[in-house]
Amino acid sequence: MTPPDRHPHVNDDAAATTEDSILCLEHGDIHVRQDGPRDAPVLLLIHGSASSSRSWDALVPLLATRHRVIRIDLPGHGRSAEPAGGDYAIPEQGRRIGMALDRLGVEHALVVGHSSGGYAATALAEQRPDLVTALALINTGPSMGAFIAPGSAAIDPAQWPPTDERIRRFASTGFRAGYHVPQELVDELRGMTYRAVAAAMQASTAYLNQRALPDRLMVLGKPLQVIFGDQDRRWRPSSAADYRLVPGAQVELLPGAGHTPILEDPARTAALLLSFAASHTARAPKAT
Questions:
Q1: Contacts of 187 (CB under 8 A, 6+ apart)
Q2: Cα–Cα dist 53/32, whole Å
Q3: Rounded CA gap, 133 and 223, in Å?
Q4: What 3-state DSSP class applies to 177?
Q5: Which end of the chain is more exposed for a tag (fewer CB within 10 A), N or C?
């Protein structure tokens, strides 16, 4: 097994369980953050478009006491490089995530995707069914028919990089009404190129137009949990029921939460994930 290329930043607190790494992969470097005991069952967290691994910050402390939590910045997001050749296609994202997990020595993972991160999670499971033990999707739209068309908040590429006010208008439907978009997420979106934002969103649309997510998941046969905030303003909350087509799927609505319960309601989100993970994760073998 090839060890990861590390440029680590390790937390020196008493827990000392957080580590940042840059993995030098084909077509561009990928940033990875790990929390929790390294011999615990793996939870892989995949963020959505125009976001980064920091979107999971409120949730990770609630998960890392029982799991090795791995977060990956998707290409062109956060601290990961834009892909050489500009390939943001969802299957390519899944392939690169699989390469990163191989580099980290991960053999099995429960994969959690938020929003369009659920498409990359599904693509990974399609390509690497041996690696993915189960899937949890958080406010991931099942089909384009469930999409709620945005208003006039789209950002003009001629005005890039946008102001804080424009970013907050653009991101506002990503949260329940009245929720204040965290400044760190505003700053990270501004740090992206317009091409990365647009191409990632176009890739998600293309993936859904090719085949609806419940249809993809039905043939995978993986345990599935779906969590949906019932105040989502990007995807019809009632569309969560579409996932019931998948045999055995657990579908949970979070009252009062919008599109991003991982920030809006981390405690209830974590409780649901931990309960699901308790039934569908395997402990990593101890090093000898």
A1: none
A2: 8
A3: 8
A4: coil
A5: C
